[in-house]
Amino acid sequence: MTTVHNTHTTPEDQPFDHEAIQESNITRHNSQTKLIHNDTSDGGMFPGYDPDHSDTGYNYNQHGGPSEYNLVDKQEAYPGEASKYQDLEYSDPYNEARAIPVSEKAAPLTRAFGFRQASLAQRIDDKKRGIPRQRHPVVVWVLSLAMLGVMIYELVLNAQNQGNPLSFKPVVNPMLGPSSYALINAGARFPPCMKLVSELTPSSQLPCLNNTANPATELCSLETVCGFGGFHDKDPNQWFRFITPIFLHAGIIHFLLNMLAQVTVAAQVEREMGSAGFFILYFAAGIFGNVFGGNFSLVGVPSVGASGAIFGTVAVAWVDLFAHWKYTYRPARKLVFMIIELLIGIAIGFIPFVDNFAHIGGFLMGLLVGMVLYPVISATKRHGIIVWALRIAAIPLAVVLFVVLIRNFYTSDPYAACSWCRYLSCIPTSINNHCKGTGLTSLTGSSV
Predict the structure, then answer these.
(1) d(CA 310, CA 294)
(2) Which of 173, 175, 179, 202 is such that its CA lies 20 to 30 A from the CA of 154?
(3) How many Cβ atoms are within 10 Å of 209's Cβ, its own excluded?
(4) What is the tens place of the pLDDT at every residue in 251-307?
(5) Alpha-carbon distance 20 to 32, whole Å?
(6) Cα distance between residue 103 and residue 338, in whole Å
(7) CA-CA distance, 414 to 357, in Å (whole number)?
(8) Structural domain boundaries in the chain
(9) CA–CA distance, 180 with 193 (Å, rounded to integer)
(10) Which CATH class is domain 138-446?
């Protein structure tokens, strides 16, 4: 058997010359290695150790290795040398503008409204990088869970009265939900339950919640259908129906569509605004959408849904775009897409049984409240003056719209204030009596 001997010699590692580094001020980018031949007469070498190369800058007789070198002693021996080791390639360089002293961090109330005590440079940098002011959309989560509970209650209510959680008789609810009269009983916006309506007086008879025949064989009074303990002053006075429809949905499909928008678009707005400001915006837009719809929609069409509030959060994106135009990536293209999205949303409102008034009213109030509460970055004095001028103008305008439309709602003929407004949510055809009359049907006008 033949044995093959390997004649190749592996080169030895070259020692690192620490002393040369210190003397020549060499950094990590141009460090060199110095070859030093062994001097057997040097008393610093260990007995019996005779390498080809040695590091003359290292004391081989000292106890402990280089890893035990005291950094404090190093600083005392070589002042200023530590700075050479701070510019690591993998580190995040220190940015004084982004440093927030503990004493200057925002208070809880300030964080809730989204107004942080950060430097202008940091706020601009966060805006460009898309970093929100709040990590978790707490209000959106709570509202979504509450609406899920109300949706379950609606299905249970219909099951108790019709034997099925979904309405299939006398007509099918296309949203896969309860009957329109069950929704009225649960708190839908229905003007005859809120005020005296000449076409539907308290003595009027409507199908009961358990009716499944067409024409109806089970009839109940308006007061019974409206529920909530009836009318305490004998006249309809359930004003809270401006609020309760926000939590109701016409069916499972309607609920899922709204929740998809709420946990995406609305959640991002809450992260940007802070929970307190978002809470005010959400309910101001949702309530005003119902006030607007109560004035000009057909009085016999019940309406439910959180779409007015969600459209209000969409309006904040417009405030953000125009206020931070130069900090937005490709703002012109974003504006085009936002216009298209808004037109599609308004067009959907013309579908039968969809309440476009909630969309329009919620969007309008969202613009006003968003202008007041949305944290705007003003890099110049001129920009800040314009922002505060718009805020000062938006506050009284929002109040006036609420007062005027609520007062108009309780008049005998709200349509007289704007005869053409009904066409904002209705395309006149023979089927809907050209958008006139009560519009009372077996289906529900849902603000999808």
Answers:
(1) 18
(2) 202
(3) 23
(4) 999 999 999 999 999 999 999 999 999 999 999 999 999 999 999 988 888 999 999
(5) 8
(6) 40
(7) 14
(8) 138-446
(9) 14
(10) mainly alpha
